[in-house]
Amino acid sequence: MVEWTAAERRHVEAVWSKIDIDVCGPLALQRCLIVYPWTQRYFGEFGDLSTDAAIVGNPKVAAHGVVALTGLRTALDHMDEIKSTYAALSVLHSEKLHVDPDNFRLLCECLTIVVAGKMGKKLSPEMQAAWQKYLCAVVSALGRQYH
User: Fold this and answer.
1) Which has the minimum average pLDDT: 55-59, 62-66, 94-98?
2) What is d(CA 28, CA 15) in angstroms, rounded to the nearest whole number?
3) Cα Dmax for the chain
4) Is 147 labelled a binding residue?
5) 6-146, what's its fold?
6) What is the pLDDT of residue 102?
7) What pLDDT does 78 receive?
8) 117-124 — which CB contacts under 8 Å span 24+ positions?
9) CB 83, CB 141: distance < 8 Å
10) In terms of Cα–Cα distance, which of 42, 22, 16 is closest to 102?
11) Among the listed ranges 45-59, 104-118, 131-145, which one has the minimum average pLDDT value?
12) Which of 44, 100, 126, 141 is geometrically suited to a Cys-Cys bond with 83, CB 3.0 to 4.6 A?
């Protein structure tokens, strides 16, 4: 279980309050697929991902970005039980979808870049530290089935 200070909880909540899932989700997944092209192998049914423009204009990529961020947002309401909250998703991604668990980390890195771009100087080092701790807890929970 991850231990959270009151300040860390406030910082994570503050970051989430600045995130528009419908905007940041697609941007984060698009960035992930472009910067780390090997992650595209899990999205063959999404159609054309052959160019940056194709990825950015792909409605299935955008929709899945929203799904991914909506799922990530779930942890905010379950910060004291993140591992159990993501147990079923961990099983799905490992046993059925066979997703490399490092891809969760890559997506979260891309999300942090998107969030930092949106928040600018309002994303203080303390806020970022709490945000990174939150993302690491979720990534660990999603990768739990692989251990």
Assistant:
1) 94-98
2) 15
3) 45
4) no
5) Globin-like (1.10.490)
6) 78
7) 85
8) 118/18, 118/19, 118/24, 119/15, 119/18, 122/18, 123/15
9) yes
10) 42
11) 131-145
12) 141
Report the phi/psi class of residue 52: left, alpha or beta, with left for phi > 0 and alpha for psi in -120 to 50: alpha
Question: Is 134 within 8 Å of 75 (Cβ atoms)?
Answer: yes
Q: Tell whether the model's pLDDT for residue 74 goes beyond 80.
A: yes
Sorted by where each begins, the domain ranges of the chain are 6-146
On the CB side of 82, how many CA atoms lie within 13 Å of its CA? 22
- Known binder of ligand: residue 11? no
> pTM of this prediction?
0.89
* Confidence check: pLDDT of 68 > 90: yes
φ, ψ at 99 (rounded to 5°): -80, 135
Question: What residue type is assigned to position 69 of the chain?
Answer: L
What's the mean per-residue pLDDT of the chain?
89
